[in-house]
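QUALITY CONTROL LOG
STEP: pairwise intake check
CHECKER ROLE: data steward
CRITERIA: each record must contain a sequence immediately followed by its structure tokens, with no blank fields

ENTRY 1 OF 2
RESULT FIELD BELOW
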Amino acid sequence: MAATTLKHVAAAAGVSISTASRALAGNPAISAATRRRVKQAAEQLNYRPNAQARALRNARSNAIGLVIPSLDNSYFAAMAAAIEQEANAHGVATMITSCGEDPARLERALDALTQRQVDGIITVPLDGAEDAIRQAHSHRPLLLIDRTLGEFPAVISDPGPGMHKAIAQLKDKGHTSIGYLSGPQETSTGRQRLAVFTEAARDLDIHIHHGSFRHREGYKGAIELLNAGVTAIVAADSMMTAGALEACHNSGKAIGEEVALVGFDDFIYLRFQPAPISVVDQNVDHMGKIATAELIAAIKNKRPPQGSIIDTRYIPRMSTAFTVESDS
């Protein structure tokens, strides 16, 4: 069955198409009686305005696009939820897609969002996708989130404040041999967090597992670090935190009593452990809302979006209560 059009509504209400359009838009130049008649006809015919046609008239789609690496990563899922919530508060819809850490898929996603006439785009960038991001940026206001890439504006976190406080506590607890689960060096977050950890722990015996932001890498790396004899482990992201948590449990290491564990990002399941997990928290909810509000403001004011940096914080819990006794 063909979709009901404005022409059908106008015919049913006995008015011209232009009058029907103005009546549905609430134009006061149309009499109240005519507006009621047109709206009643639209309801009876189950008329739905054409969003694309309305966007062309208004030069706005009232929608933004979001590209994240993964929908099954709790961190990026939380980011997407925060962005969608903030956009809804501004009366803006969000088109969400993922690219699986694949630059080619990111390029296709950005192109698809541009083709669909979104008003602006938020994306987590990938090395190797600079040209695709530059192309999208030339057509739409674009703001990076979580990671930096080139000269594009980005809303990111600074791992320094939280990471330095975490290492300081481990030192106070007598830890001299600390393991670090590093993220991929192809990402700005992986590089920056490793640099901060290395600086904060420069006078300690450190062991680094180079992996990816994945659960299995956290598990594999934590097993290797435990076998190397570290007394504390610091994970560089939420997925590796989950892997490290599982590795400690499966190895029979009592977290907070036989090994200290510092995670990344404050997710609720980390608080429900026998020894709640200390974390370096970058407040992903706040990050998503800041990025969304900035992009929408840039769209409305017809200006380029601006990046910002959010400080991380350290939340100490029982997982880092383990104190290493001195040999002296």
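ENTRY 2 OF 2
RESULT FIELD BELOW
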Amino acid sequence: MTADALTDVTGLRVGHATRTGDGWLTGTTVVLAPEGGVVAAVDVRGGGPGTKETDALDPRNLVQKVEAVVLTGGSAYGLDAASGVMAWLEERQRGVRVGPDPAHVVPVVPAACVFDLGRGGDFRARPDAALGRAAVEAAAASEVGAAVPEGCVGAGTGAVVGTLKGGVGSASTVLGSGITVAALVVANAAGEVLDPGTGVLYGELFQGRAEYPEAQAHEAAQRRLAELAAKNAPPPLNTTLAVVATDAALSKAQAQKLAGTAHDGIARAVRPVHLLNDGDTVFALATGSHPLDEGHPLALNEILAAGADTLTRAIVRAVRAAESVTGAGGAWPSYEELYGGEGAGREGRGRGAGGGAPQLKCGEKRPPAPKV
């Protein structure tokens, strides 16, 4: 039994810290590696990234493994969340050893941020070191293989995709070889995930499982989105962040290739993508428990393909798990509210799209999103 999430890569844990209300709509998500760290790499394709310690992941550089990766809201201000994670790791003597004393460590904590400033109403409400520490503590307290909360949590709390509410999503794939490939995403793109002509999610079109809404429901949804877009301030910066992980034994160079090809998974689900006002960043992690077939020089290919496909599926899950938000910072309806009910021509997808469904605030509970 798997969680269909990043945590299906044994040893990886995910923790969220979320703040809403009183001007807040943001949070931090931490991916915590098993003690001793994991091989890590990164590929940045967006034109406006906000990152920390990504140069350390270059295959030409010294650091071979990392203990944690931070995804956070708050734009560049929110990168301060990584300091809380560093402090937590240092207390446990986890990091790059730099001296004779076991306590002489420097935790290398790569981090990347999404733009969500002001979406809760207060531009100065953004993650700090305390929120980062809360997220890593949540990760450490979770069980191995635990389900990953999705939607309006952690770094996805204030996420927006185009004109829709975004959020956190996760998914996993087990290959015929027994190798697991998984993804965690914070969907917060300047581009759209929704085909304006049909109302179908681009990611579901790619998967070949799209359900087309009825024309009347689609027209009503498009009218509402247009009205809200005219009222909301245009988002100056957006970003899709992801962590793609595998239990295969990869070098840093192979992990970097995985991070790069995984961006194709974003491009299948978001259009347009990698713009100047995006900071699209993908981290790749490899725990190394499954060796690759050394006699098969192309053995990495199936992992590369699965990474992109699984990331597309994670984006779909993020959008479907998102909850509508209306507040001082703006109003962003969820895809499920607009298109999820039987009135939208879908089966078993929740309430109608006619606007009568009660809106949920980020952090309120609803039944788990269906697997996609």
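INTAKE CHECK: passed for both entries
DESCRIPTIVE NOTE, ENTRY 2: Residues 341-360, 363-372 have pLDDT under 50 and may be disordered.
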